């Protein structure tokens, strides 16, 4: 999701930054069923495991009745089976009790994530009555979201959540759907204190204050201009092109994957023959929705009986005029993302997006709605649990039209250091810049007398005498919205206001037209680099004279042509359904250290990597829609690159402000921007991708290739399934390590450790709570003497890995070790026995998992005795 600016409701934006990517109401929502879950082999194996290990899992006999299997499926490529369980009371999940069980093909447990509450019903019975009533919780939620009082009572339910110490607490879950825009909030309010604990938006986006758009569309779409037609052909900017700036359009002929979309992209019934001749089919429906920027609501390009989607793209025309070509390109890329992700394990069983599930596994009826043109200068994804669709809630990618900056709108006279012309982005529905006689005056930096004086948030500026009759300059910050700065500038007598953005991109800015009443001062924004240049000249003491003129902007850019954005948004659907199982859909990605935006950036970069690219090249995100060249910085604080001189982000950034970029909390104690947290995560994944390419080469066949890029994508996809609900950075790192052991036999363990250690996620790193950005510690060490792969059995015939470990240890004796029972003891370095276990010789030979969740971090000795043979190994348990 590409960020845009905050306007009328800055706090709403800050809240969104605390969210993950997205989705369904909090975990207390009844989980949607997965077909055959109760009777599938994968579910049965999980239930059998839980019953056999109830004591180790902290479950009493009574607790077994409160467990639900929310999803279970198997992977064909590595033979793993996955099952996802949760404790449930009264039809509602208990938050924080999501557990994942992952088994090898031989039915031996590979890994387990999550925790249950012991004696759940007894714990609930001991809880006091809520000190906060439902109505007070509703009011707290509305105040938190800065929404007006509701006319009718909001839905509020009392739910339970597991705390990190294993105890229970009560919360009110309040649902809020604002009158304007697509947002659908679920707010969790502490039933004891009335404090808002968490707010999550079903829509994965960064709102700009008002979701509704106000710029009228005046250009009708061009009529289809048929060129020499090719049956089942699509004129698109085909993979791996990122946008029209990266190459020319071509005809993609019959591009549907025979495995992922066996009946083509226009089928829905699983029989030969297309059901639709428009851009609609089993995986996606692409169209223009109802909206201010849309000329023809419901328009979808029609390829006719031969499915000939050959529409021209004329960059000189408006974005609306190019809708047929843009919608065709969007149809191609959403289907491509569906087909490729299925090849890597995002299957029908694991919850992909399809109208009809041909295998009968998973839940169908949830194809992607890809909507183009309703919003301005943003994109977002709405996700739902597998198969959970209503008339106003369905999986959707919504892409907008991107306004372009006015070239040479600001000019500084003279020969000084700031002399020259600058591009500027105007406030769309504010006072327009004049087109003939420019606004001229000295640039004067705002001073509102506050601790942040250049923000211009206070209404009475202390330097109003200097501002009067000149052009005010203020810093873009999040202490107030645009309208307050503009009013302050007008009150001070400024002729215009220039905002200096905090980053080096410009995007559409607008506010509610009702808020512009009485405002006569134009507002424009310049980039951080340009603004710093202007401010440096102003601080020198010599007056800086400038003029503002309303120049002609280049044609708007259509989001349907930015393939990176399409891949980014689609990836939100992949990550939310694979983390914690397909029934949760975002409930497992709403913690503060979650990396949803990072995974989406990785998919964007990976899908648009071309043969001949190198890892050190700086890659910006969203350069096309921002009107930047292909080498532009993009929308992130720094571009992606394996070169630490270009991108030096590490795990140490999390929770801190580095180079004027906040990777921690804002003034409201919410994560400042989930994209910045994601930047750090994607940086390490991008490093891993290029390290794997260096080892295995690059394969241009993205779907079935065997190159390092293919292997990295497989690790990322498998890691999503193996990581816990609400993962932090180190949880996800360990899941990728586990994925390598499961899929590639541990062949890349040392390489993975080295890559993660380079970015501060090494063996001595500490994650702390994944719901806290302030308790983590970066560590740059890779384990020495890695015992990480099954092939690394020692000469005595014992395999023990991974070491170091965070929670679980796999033990395997070599074949021929005898038939005597195998005794296992885990001891502290002082000799205290912490854990014992007895295995049959057959189980030890097949491989067994030791659960070390209960051990405090440190060094331990593992003693294994089999008949006359005895082994002792040192094992490091990490935080």
Word description of this protein:
The longest helix is centred in the C-terminal third of the chain and has 23 residues, at 674-696. Among the domains are: 41-125, Nuclear Transport Factor 2, Chain: A (Roll); 127-201, Nuclear Transport Factor 2, Chain: A (Roll), CATH 3.10.450; 420-548, Glucose Oxidase, domain 1 (3-Layer(bba) Sandwich); 591-758, Neutral Protease, domain 2, CATH 1.10.390.10; 790-877, Immunoglobulin-like. It is built from 15 helices and 34 strands. With 879 residues, it is of the alpha+beta class. It has a seven-stranded mixed beta barrel. Strands 10, 13, 15, 16, 17 and 25 form a six-stranded mixed β-sheet that branches.
């Amino acid at each position: 999701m590409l960020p845009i600016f905050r306007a009328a409701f800055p706090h709403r934006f800050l809240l969104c930054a605390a969210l993950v990517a997205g989705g369904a109401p909090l975990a207390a929502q009844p989980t949607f069923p997965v077909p055959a879950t109760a009777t599938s082999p994968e579910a049965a194996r999980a239930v059998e495991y839980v019953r056999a290990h109830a004591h180790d899992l902290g479950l009493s006999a009574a607790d077994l009745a409160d467990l639900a299997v929310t999803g279970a499926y198997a992977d064909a490529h590595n033979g793993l089976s996955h099952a996802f369980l949760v404790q449930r009371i009264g039809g509602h999940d208990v938050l924080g009790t999501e557990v994942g069980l992952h088994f090898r093909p031989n039915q031996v447990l590979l890994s387990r994530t999550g925790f249950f509450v012991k004696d759940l019903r007894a714990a609930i019975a001991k809880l006091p009555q809520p000190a906060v009533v439902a109505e007070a919780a509703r009011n707290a939620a509305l105040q938190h979201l800065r929404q007006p009082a509701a006319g009718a009572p909001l839905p509020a339910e009392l739910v339970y959540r597991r705390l990190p110490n294993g105890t229970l607490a009560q919360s009110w879950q309040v649902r809020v759907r604002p009158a304007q825009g697509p947002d659908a909030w679920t707010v969790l309010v502490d039933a004891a204190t009335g404090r808002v604990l968490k707010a999550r938006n079903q829509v994965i986006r960064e709102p700009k204050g008002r979701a509704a758009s106000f710029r009228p569309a005046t250009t009708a779409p061009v009529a289809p201009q048929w060129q020499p037609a090719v049956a089942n052909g699509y004129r698109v900017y085909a993979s791996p092109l990122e946008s029209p700036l990266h190459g020319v359009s071509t005809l993609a002929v019959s591009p549907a994957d025979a495995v992922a979309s066996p009946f083509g992209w226009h089928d829905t019934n699983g029989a030969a023959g297309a059901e639709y001749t428009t851009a609609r089919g089993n995986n996606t429906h692409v169209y223009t929705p109802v909206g201010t920027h849309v000329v023809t609501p419901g328009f979808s390009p029609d390829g006719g009986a031969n499915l000939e989607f050959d529409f021209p793209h004329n960059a000189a025309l408006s974005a609306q005029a190019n809708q047929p070509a843009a919608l065709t390109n969007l149809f191609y890329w959403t289907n491509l993302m569906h087909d490729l992700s299925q090849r890597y394990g995002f299957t029908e069983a694991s919850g992909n997006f399809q109208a009809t599930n041909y295998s009968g596994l998973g839940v169908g009826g949830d194809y992607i709605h890809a909507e183009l043109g309703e919003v301005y200068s943003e994109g977002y994804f709405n996700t739902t649990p597998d198969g959970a669709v209503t008339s106003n809630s369905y999986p959707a990618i919504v892409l907008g039209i991107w306004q372009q900056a006015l070239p040479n709108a600001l000019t500084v006279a003279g020969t000084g250091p700031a002399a020259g012309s600058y591009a500027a982005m105007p406030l769309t529905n504010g006072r327009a810049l004049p087109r003939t006689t420019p606004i001229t005056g000295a640039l004067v930096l705002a001073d509102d007398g506050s601790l942040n004086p250049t923000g211009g948030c206070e209404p009475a500026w202390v330097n109003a005498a200097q501002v009067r009759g000149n052009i005010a300059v203020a810093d873009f910050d999040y202490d107030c919205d645009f309208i307050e700065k503009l009013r302050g500038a007008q009150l001070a007598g400024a002729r215009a206001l220039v905002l200096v953005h905090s980053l080096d991109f410009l995007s559409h800015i607008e506010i509610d037209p009702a808020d512009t009443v009485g405002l006569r001062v134009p507002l424009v924004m310049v980039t951080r680099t340009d603004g710093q240049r202007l401010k440096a000249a102003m601080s020198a003491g010599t007056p800086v004279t400038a003029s503002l003129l309303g120049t002609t902007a280049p044609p708007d850019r259509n989001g349907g042509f930015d393939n990176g954005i399409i891949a980014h948004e689609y990836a939100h659907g992949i990550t939310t359904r694979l983390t914690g199982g397909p029934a949760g859909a975002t409930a497992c990605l709403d913690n503060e250290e979650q990396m949803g935006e990072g995974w989406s950036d990785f998919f964007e970069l990976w899908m648009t990597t071309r043969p001949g690219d190198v890892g050190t090249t700086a890659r910006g995100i969203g350069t096309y829609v921002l009107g930047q060249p292909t080498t532009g910085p993009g929308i992130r604080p720094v571009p992606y690159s394996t070169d630490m001189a270009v991108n030096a982000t590490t795990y140490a950034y999390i929770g801190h402000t580095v180079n004027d970029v906040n990777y921690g909390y804002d003034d409201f104690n919410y994560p400042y921007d989930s994209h910045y947290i994601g930047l750090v995560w994607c940086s390490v994944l991008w490093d891993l991708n290029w390290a794997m390419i260096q080892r295995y080469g690059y394969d241009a066949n993205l779907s079935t290739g065997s190159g390092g890029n293919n292997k990295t994508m497989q690790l990322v996809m498998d890691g999503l399934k193996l990581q816990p609900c609400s993962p932090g950075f180190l949880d996800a790192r360990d899941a990728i390590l586990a994925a390598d052991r499961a899929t590639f036999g541990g062949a890349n363990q040392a390489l993975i450790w080295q890559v993660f250690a380079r970015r501060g996620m090494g063996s001595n790193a500490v994650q702390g709570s994944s719901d806290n950005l302030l308790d983590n510690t970066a560590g740059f060490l890779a384990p020495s003497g890695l015992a990480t792969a099954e092939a690394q059995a020692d000469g005595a015939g014992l395999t023990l890995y991974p070491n170091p470990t965070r929670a679980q240890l796999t033990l395997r004796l070599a074949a021929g070790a005898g038939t005597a029972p195998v005794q296992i003891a885990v001891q502290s370095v002082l000799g205290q026995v912490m854990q014992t276990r007895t295995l049959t010789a057959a189980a030890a030979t097949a491989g067994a998992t030791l659960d070390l969740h209960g051990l405090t971090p440190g060094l331990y000795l593992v003693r294994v005795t089999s008949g006359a043979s005895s082994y002792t190994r040192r094992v490091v348990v990490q935080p």
